[in-house]
Predict the 3D structure of the following.
Amino acid sequence: MSSIYILGIETSCDETAVAVCKDGVMLSNIIASQTIHQKYGGVVPELAGRMHIEYIVPTVTQALKEAHCTVQELSAIAYTNGPGLIGSLLVGSEFAKSLSLTLNTPLIAVNHLESHIMANLIDSPKPSFPFLCLTVSGGHTLLTKVLGPLDYEILGRTHDDAVGEAFDKTAKLLGFAYPGGPLIDKCAQGGNPHAFIFPKPKIEGLDFSFSGVKTAVLYFLQKNTLQDTQFIETHKADICASIQYTLIAILLDKLEKAVALTNIKEVCIAGGVSANSGLRKALTNKGIEKKWHTYYPKMEYCTDNAAMVAIYGYYQYLSGRYSTLTTPCFPTGKL
Ligand code: KG4
Ligand code: ZN
């Protein structure tokens, strides 16, 4: 049997990303980041769409070149069709459709959140099915029971902010640039996680809530900077470490509950926040303590990337799950 080459294209937000995999092994993974948004303190949708138009052709070209693969060798073209910014999604979608039409190659539309989960299947050791996956990103916090590559059940989700939003919004209160999650992570490394105590939400079951932590941090900073204008600067590392500790404790508490309920001890994390060093360490330690098998994607597969689109596309290709030229993009998405 000849090899299966999948081209993955991800343009759901502000990263133009393209990857190529051969029989499920990643050959290239290129990310063109859009730094233009930094000065605005968040992603500007109109600019993101325009930058994707500029970056898509060179990024695809580079990914194919690094993979030593020609377009004629491609078995299928996988692309993200939602959820995400509609103007951004449309660039990847129209490009993928045009290529598919030109080459007469199958097209595979991929859900962005599902592809984050599938990032755990790129490298070895891989989790075995069924496994639990906590997807933590800028837009979502989702706990799933994954029964097979294309088969999962939702166990819990956030009622308000996503955990990545909680990182980014509290980071903004501390004066950090966007996205603040990685900056809190870095600053927290020199701080005491028990210096300040922030309340945790009391949400039953496996759902999450993060807006309370954000508000608690806001009031805490307002109160303390009123008494001491230098409070943030003096205590920045301790504040970051304490915020990060609180957010991680909320996540791990729900994971522990999910393991107890399902008796599944294969536990993964995925999404941008799974790059957080504190969360990775805490999950590893919890795994050792509770005898779980824990997994997290390589750093480059945590935040938005196309390797996860290519791998998910590969599994969909094996099951013959193709999309068509009329498959739409969707901006907001519930799983
Ligand atoms: O998965 P992702 O790249 O995009 C979405 O699908 O949302 O996630 C982006 C989120 C942002 O909120 C960013 O601050 C957060 O992931 N993030 C981190 C870290 N790296 C990225 N949060 C905490 N610590 C990190 N090291
Ligand atoms: Zn994402």
Q: What stands out?
A: The chain has a mean pLDDT of 96.
